[in-house]
Each structure stands twice: as C-alpha cells, then as structure tokens.
Amino acid sequence: MLIIFLLLGLIIGSFLNAVVYRLNAVESLMERSHCPHCKKQVRWFDNVPLLSFILLSAKCRDCGEKISWQYPAVELATGLVFALLGNYFFKVDDLATWMATAYYLVIFAILIVIFVYDLKYMEIPMLVLWLGVGVSLIYFIFADSQNFSVASSILNLKTISGILGGLIAGGFFYALAAYSKESWMGYGDAYLGLLIGLVAGWSNIFVTLLLAFTTGSLISVALIVVSKKTLKSQVPFAPFLISGVFLTLLLPKIFPQLQTYFLLFS
Ligand SMILES: [Zn+2]
Question: For all residues of the chain together, what is the average pLDDT?
C-alpha cells in the first residue's frame, strides 16, 4: 500500500512541477511539457518521475541544458509526503479514512505548489490558495454532515474549528503585515495563514505557528552563518508554515507519546 502512495506522489509531484512552471509562464496545463531552454517537447519516455532525471544525467536530451534539481526534488518530496499521509491516515476497511486521505492528498498537493512557488518567486499564487480554501470548506462541510450527531461540542466540528484557526492565523499575520508595513510579513502570508489555520483547525494552530517560527528562525540563522543571506534579505515564510502544518498533523501519529505535548500547547 505504501508503495502505491509513493508512486502516486511521484507522478503527482511531476504534475505539480508543471503547475508551478506554467502558473508563472501563464501557459495552459493541457500542453505537453517542453524544455524551458530549447522549447522542444519532452519525449514521453523522458518524462518518468525521478528516473528520467537520473538517466538523462540532469541534461535536456535535445540541447544539453541542465535540468533544474527542483524537478526531482519536488517529485521525491511529493512521493514521501503522499507515502506518509497514506501510511498514517488510510485504512482500507474504514470508508471515512478514504475521504480524509483524499482530502489530505489534495490539500498537500496544493500546499506543495505554494511552497515551491513562494521559494522560487517570493510570491503566493492566490488562485491556488483560494482553491485550497474551497476544497477544505467542501470537505469539512461533508465530513461534519456525516458526524454531526457525534460531535459533542460545536468547536469539534471541522468547519467551525477550521474557520476559527484560519481567522486566528490569518488575523495574526494580517496584523503583523499591516503594523510592519509589509516588511516582516506580506499580505500574501496573511492569506496563507488563513488557509493553514483552516487545515490545522483552531486547536492545532498554535503548535503549527510555534513549529513554523522555530524552524524559520533556525534556518534563517543557519543561512546567515553560512552567509548565503544577510539579516536584511527576505526569507520566504510559506515553506515554514506549510512544513509546520504537515508536522503538526503527522508527528503525533508517528510518535504517539508526543500527543501529550501537543495537547499541552493546544
Ligand atoms: Zn532543451
């Protein structure tokens, strides 16, 4: 089962690379992929995730231009993210987990696009972000309608919990952006906060923000030490927020003994 999720992730990862590229180049998603340098169409057998990158030794077959490491990295990362989600959320004999797993696969595919896009272009693709908000609300309303009588408190409803989390994180970042006149945080990050809070839910949002800020500052300090960045240079924040929400959802499943700590903060 794990291998199916991994392979699915590799294929979707390859598609997400194309989405990132075409969102920026404003090209149709339906076109066959081509080399960004010589514009020649990529042959179908050169389009196999990971494998083609290795077999072509990272060069275009037509013009010999180097292929960016971004392609295999995103494919591999999507493969691993899908394998982890499948492993910890999916149970073949429990139909409710099918819906939940499908939702997590779609939402993390969307978040990976935002992650890579922000890293590459220092900008949040708003169209993709609102797609994530829409997908989340549809899934939450569906899931709540299935469990309505079981939910003991209104705060346990996914829709309410998600909207609260979104307002907390989105509002917090919006305030930071407005107060600092966008020098600490952009308004794009505020909208991403809204989506991240929606996915995490109100009880998880504090752990998510804590993880995002800790990893964010550790990596920024590391980058300053190896002097790739200075204190003044901007570091995109979306990758940390997205890693934060992924860890918040996965860590207590991988290490059940962590659950107490997660509850402590929530
Ligand atoms: Zn080429």
Answer: 90
| Its pTM surpasses 0.90 | yes
List pLDDT tens digits, range 191-212.
999 999 999 999 999 999 999 9
Cα-to-centroid distance, 54 and ligand 1 (Å): 16
Q: Are 63 and 225 in contact (CB under 8 A)?
A: no
- Ligand 1 centroid vs 125 CA: distance in angstroms? 27
Whole-number Å distance, alpha carbon 247 to ligand 1 midpoint, is: 38
Residue 106: per-residue pLDDT: 98
Q: Distance from the CA of 44 to the center of ligand 1, in angstroms?
A: 15
How remote is the CA of residue 20 from the centroid of ligand 1, in Å? 19
Token representation of residue 178: 């407005």
Q: Which helix (H) or strand (E) holds 115?
A: helix 95-121
Domain coordinates of the chain in residue numbers? Answer: 1-123, 125-266
Tokens of 18: 């194309």
Residue pair 232/265 in contact by the 8 Å Cβ criterion: no
Smallest Cα–Cα separation from 192: which of 137, 103, 118, 266? 118
